Amino acid sequence: MWLPILGLLIGIFLGLFTEFRIPDAYSSYLSIAVLAALDTLFGGVRAHLENVFNEKVFLTGFFTNIALAAGLAFLGVHLGVDLYLAAVFAFGVRLFHNIALIRRILLDSWFSKGKDRKETQ
Amino acid sequence: MKNRIIVIFTIVTFIIGFMIAVQFQTTNEPERDTRSLFELRQALTTEKERQAELNREIDRQLELLYQLQQTEDVEDVMLDAIEELREQAGLTEMGGPGIIIEVKPIFDESYEGGAIRTVPPYLLRMLLNELNMSGAIEVAVGNERIITTTPIREVNGVTLINGSRMTQFPLTIKVLTNAPEDLHHAVMASQSREFFSYENFNLEVTPINYVKLPPYGNTLRVRYMNPIKEDS
Predict the structure, then answer these.
(1) Which of B54, B89, B124 is the last residue of a domain?
(2) Is B116 exposed, middle or buried (0-12, 13-18, 19+ CB in 10 A)?
(3) Mean pLDDT by 10 residues, chain B (232 residues)
(4) Which residue of chain A has the CA closest to B5?
(5) Is residue B165, in this structure, part of any structural domain at all?
(6) pLDDT at residue number A99
(7) Sequence-distant (≥ 6) Cβ neighbours of residue B173 within 8 angstroms
(8) I need a surface site. Which of A20, A79, A85, B180 has the fewest CB within 10 A?
(9) Which element (helix H / strand E) includes B207?
């Protein structure tokens, strides 16, 4: 449970201390990629809680989503259409949806645990 | 199986954390200073000049303060100070060595176009800037003294300076300077002379031992300044 959070913290520290920077022109692609990654992560967490987690689906989804989002943003820049908004919208909606489902599942399990404890007493 | 899932999640969160950190650093990066060594030196020189000027000003004010503290009769010192300030603001008549520039229209045989009524304001601004660059102390265009707030604009095709029309030809520009000969050469070789000629104007410059500049005639209106209190 704590290992993924530790991984996140290590990633942030490493990113901050390696002084690794990307050119300004590409920062919008990276932000879209971050959004896609977060969406996939929460999707994975939800699937895990629903017991339908498949690591192949998760890993391929993670990388293709990032690549697709960045590619879409790139295409949008070259076509003069704000296509990245489509990615932002899609990932944003899914992100909220996933988080809501995760919350429900966690709430359900928590309440059912409480009920079980009461019944056993 | 369970461990594998956690490892996968850890890798993914690690990547996300790294991306977020990089993005954070990229967006928080301060504007890079891209000035070259030469530009930096120039900026440094400007700042040094500014500092020297401020120091001079402080010295002057301290001296004034000292005088005020020493003398019993404060009024004289204050009157002197006011007179000096009036001189600085251009409210007094001033005279001294300088040059006189006469702007005349020239018509050659191939001239096409309408009558020349006035000197365009952009030319006057350019000339004034060049004069100030070359060591002019005070300038008067026509009968109008140029002060800090003097507007030079065009209204209905006529150039107005301090609200007066500049339609008379030749237009005389009187300049007060410490080195009339140098300024004379500077104007003769200046870029504005060339630009004046494009608009069919000729500049005639004469250095002179004594030139008298009229005072600023209108009332100075101070609209956006307030005196501050002693303790604030």
Answers:
(1) B89
(2) middle
(3) 82 88 80 82 93 93 85 80 87 89 84 79 89 88 87 88 84 89 88 86 89 86 79 58
(4) A55
(5) yes
(6) 92
(7) B100, B101, B102, B103, B127, B139, B140, B141, B142
(8) A79
(9) strand B201-213
The answer to whether position B8 is within a domain reads no
Q: What is the pLDDT of residues B48-69, one digit of tens each?
A: 999 999 999 999 989 888 888 8
Q: ipTM score of the complex?
A: 0.84
Tell me which DSSP letter residue B43 carries.
H
Residue ranges of E strands in B70-200: 94-105, 136-141, 144-145, 152-155, 158-161, 164-165, 171-177
Q: Kindly report the number of other CB atoms within 10 A of residue A20's CB atom.
A: 13
**Is residue A46 included in any domain, yes or no?**
yes
Distance in angstroms (rounded) separating the CA atoms of residues A34 and A31: 5
Q: Which residue has the tokens 């987690």?
A: A53
- Shortest CA gap A121–chain B (Å): 31
CA dist B208 and B141 (Å) reads 16
Nearest to A41 among B7, B12, B27 (CB): B12
Helix or strand holding residue B212 (H, E): strand B201-213
A2 touches chain B (CB under 8 A): no
Which of A62, A91, A77 lies closest to A27 in space, CA to CA?
A: A77
Which residues does chain A have within 8 Å of residue B25's beta carbon, measured at their own beta carbons?
15-16, 19-21
Q: Is residue A8 part of a domain?
A: no
**Is A114 part of any domain?**
yes
E strand or H helix that includes residue B13: helix B2-28
Q: How far is CA B8 from CA A59, B102, B106, in A?
A: 8, 85, 86
* Set of chain A residues whose Cβ sits within 8 Å of the Cβ of B30: none
Tokens 């209108």 belong to residue: B218
Domain identity same for B73 and B110 = no
Q: Of B30, B59, B89, which residue is a domain's last?
A: B89
Cis ω before A23 (30° cut-off from 0): no
C-beta neighbour count of B136 within 10 angstroms: 21
| CB-based contact A33:A69 (threshold 8 Å) | yes
